[in-house]
Give the backbone structure.
Amino acid sequence: MALQCCYGGSTIQTLKLASIPSTAPLSSSAICSPFKTLTITPSAHLIKALSSPAAVVDSTTTHVVKPQWKAAIDFKSIVENKSAVAENLKNRNSTASLELVIELYERLLQLQKEVEDLRFERNTVANKMKGKVEPLERQRLIEEGKNLKEKLVTLEEDLIKLTDALQREAQCIPNMTHPDAPIGGEDSSTIRKTVGTPRDFTFSIKDHVQIGKELDLFDFDAAAEVSGSKFYYLKNEAVLLEMGLINWTLSEVMKRGFIPLTTPEIARSLVVEKCGFQPRGDNTQVYSIEGSDQCLIGTAEIPVGGIHMDSILADSSLPIKYVAFSHCFRTEAGAAGAATRTLDMATEDLGAPAYRKYDIEAWMPGLGRYGEISSASNCTDYQSRRLGIRYRPESSTSPPTNTKKSKGRNLSPPEFVHTLNATACAVPRMLVCLLENYQQEDGSVVIPEPLRPFMGGIELITPKSN
């Protein structure tokens, strides 16, 4: 999937109509057992969920506190590994408050104990009333039980509020980081591999905007009138090139066992949050739909991640690999090129869910520099703990299940899957890449040979005659 988990630089947009900027990357995602395809250090795991009782409210009570969704975060592990977590926050330049999380967790433990003690007292009173009791004593017990019940309702509401506050703060804590990831900002990222070299042009090069206008491939002026600045129409061979990229990518990944999907382009806010994105706040680039709890998706990663939400998968079914096509509604800048390099991204450039991330950058002749065209992230169990995606190991004595609720006995306890997300083909950026790198001195553009079968055999885009 197109994984960009930390958005910045734009305030939240509230929509009445969905006529907003979009790009159309083709994305791929794999859900896999950590024992099959990933090697993860112990520090990357947050293992146990915090359990807190639901509110028990008398039928006459008018106010009920509803808990928000909860991620299966191992708060005990956070406390026990406080130094490592603090160092990780520092390395990622994260603003999450570890001290507040620990403070809220300790308060929660104390409140849970108070609730448990109060429940014990209430049960004790209830048991005393089961036997033969004098009328005056019974009346006293009734009054005592009523008082305990009222106190319990109040404490349980406080418990839900405190649990929610703890969840909100703890969900800001990013995933742990691979020990070999470079520390620092984007400039600290290291080049792992370079493929090819930038083309040495013997003529004055044009950028993709000029190429597109001269070959009648884009129409920015009409799009500006219809939709606003930064929109465009694709025309003529550019449309075939876009479709060719999509179909070529699908054919390649399907050979490797990926299941093709087209996805909904609207998702509930909670699903967006569970995938590690921020649909609310000053630094979001997620478009929210006015008067609803829905958002326009910024990547196919979100609806793909939600497919198996709250499910227990069969170990034998893993890895599950999807390639999904969708529009991506977000504000971003970028382009593409032909000479590429693979970067091991530094800690400050990792999205919150990413344990490790590799970017692929391509040479962009129009800008005279490399620019990102793809991003692949190992998210370990960060997303699955929020989405509730688990699997049951094959060591189970009974056949594994693939249902949301299993009532089987003698089964191994389910474990959280790991998710891998990568851009398969960011179509607009690849259009930029191809037009700029395959331009010819006479103004034409050569179509790369692998794409020609997906474009009706077209080999060359030439200037249109009057």
